Amino acid sequence: MITPSEVIEHLFCPRFTYFMNCLKIPQHEELRYKVLKGRELHERREKENKEYLRKKIGCVDKELSVYVASPVIRVRGVIDEVLTLSDGSMATLDYKYTEFRDFLFETHKVQSVLYAMLIRETYKKPVYRGYLCYVRDGITLKEVVYKPEDFEYAMALVEEILAVILKGYYPKRTRWNNRCVDCCYKNICV
Hints:
39% of the residues lie in helices and 22% in strands. It is an alpha+beta fold. It has a 5-stranded mixed sheet with strand order 1-2-3-4-5. α1 (4-12) crosses α2 (14-22). The two termini are 28 Å apart. The mean pLDDT is 90.
């Protein structure tokens, strides 16, 4: 099974999948500032305001740091918050240590969609939307409303990633050359 983080890395550049999963070269994300800050934030959120429910969005219950896995979807991960909403549906809430920039990053949306699929399968409840909480400059809560094509796109990405891993082929790199500047594999990528 793969993780939503692996899907995000694949969206950044498909060669991440190859270097990490086929060649087993670690990216040493534990050395990256944003990763460290994000982990610190998650640990703090688990201890603070455990009982707080976001009533403005209709939340009536929540679970923190929920591990979910699905052999059907072939994805596993830990969801920051699994929300039960007043209409009987469920939702995901994910914290992001970044600023919201008036648009939703594809990586954040796909991660949210994958979590929604995991919740839907695990809890056998409908999941129509999720929430992203951007905390870098205060707190900005954004709703993500899922469409059927969002789930199809996420599953296609999972299939694509598993094909790289299982067949071990060297995928094309990202078409965005500016990403290569900040890539941990830039010295070995040709």
